[in-house]
Amino acid sequence: MIYLSSDYTEGAHPDILRRLVDTNLEQTTGYGTDPHCQSAADLIRKACSAPAADVHFLVGGTQANLTVIAAALRPHQGVLSAETGHIQSHESGAIEATGHRVIPLQSPLGKIDADSIDRFCQTHFDDPNREHAVKPAMVYLSHPTELGTLYSLDELKAIREVCTRHSLLLYLDGARLAYALASPQNDVTLPDLARHCDVFYIGGTKCGALFGEAVVISNESLKTDFRYIIKQRGGMLAKGRLLGLQFEAMFQNNLYFEIGRHAIALALKIRQAFSDKGVELLIDSETNQQFPILKQDQIDRIGREFAYTWWQEAGDDQSAIRFCTSWATRPEAVSRLVELIRVL
Predict the structure, then answer these.
(1) Which residues of the chain have pLDDT under 70?
(2) What phi, psi does 70 have (nearest 5°)?
(3) What is the edge-to-edge ordering of all strands in the sheet holding 199-203?
(4) Whether this model's pTM surpasses 0.85
């Protein structure tokens, strides 16, 4: 069985494993105060052209989301998200467990736009009884989205303008950020994210690391006491250097960007094969997630050799399924899938 069901079915990129083995017997301080975490943070600041940014390393995406939101919002405040956003649909109420409501907005193609945010906030703040409702105080985006779609730089700028107008913080989830940055459709860079977002994170778990996410904070007001919140939320890893080492390896010699390019090249081969066959795609995605709509007998045939993720029903005995490539996806595996697609 060949697994194309997600981008974290394997361990870690060999370069990262070598770095972990080579430094295994080093003695360092704990909790992210070691030289490797400091070096990784410096490399990330350089890549983001953000020398004043704070960089913190956490273990996973849900942990990063709940820690950032818990640190940023007061008890009466909530966060606006796409209805398909990870914090809304895939985190078992983790944000609500911090005492903050996730406020979903309609999200065609997995994205929310500046106008929707503006309308919601204007309605809220024009309401004379607004204190009876949760106050919107943050916008949550993901790049790419849960559907593999991307925000353009113009869209990001427009959302930033609305956030500034309504005094909202802008937070971007970059769990699959390597694949967004490598997409031919993408025009957003790391410096753009550091410039327009108050806080965002660079995903490692789904992008070649064993585990780990790097939270980048540009907004000065969010920097104060952030490590206290990390500790309180269970995110301060005693062997913190294991996180720093991985990001140090990924941001030396452009490994993070190479990982993204590898996955995108193979994902687009899968996309092209379905397109050549005349198979409809649920979403026009140029990232590492592809969503073909297939008949059940076609899904069963592919499923004998390939693991996929079932996504949603699409009518007339059809369903959308997801194929997901990663740093570890083998070209010969994709070639075999392309062969299967051609004879469906």
Answers:
(1) none
(2) -65, -35
(3) 54-58, 213-217, 199-203, 169-173, 135-142, 77-82, 102-105
(4) yes
